[in-house]
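Q: Hi! First time doing this. I have a protein sequence and I read that you can turn it into a structure. Is that right? Here it is:
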Amino acid sequence: MDHETAQLVSIGAFHSSIEPTRIQRVPDLLHGSGILAQRVNVHDMIIPMPQ
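A: Yes, that's right. Below is the predicted 3D structure, encoded as C-alpha cells:
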C-alpha cells in the first residue's frame, strides 16, 4: 500500500475493558428465544484482569 492510500485508512479503536452486563444481553436473548435451554451467566466466565 502506498503512503497516500495508507493515510486514508482509518483504524477503529476498541475498548480494552469488558462490560459483563453488555455481553450478558446475547445469552439472555438466546435463552429467551429458546435457542439456549438454560441461562448462561457470563459473569462466571470472565476472569478479572490483574492490577
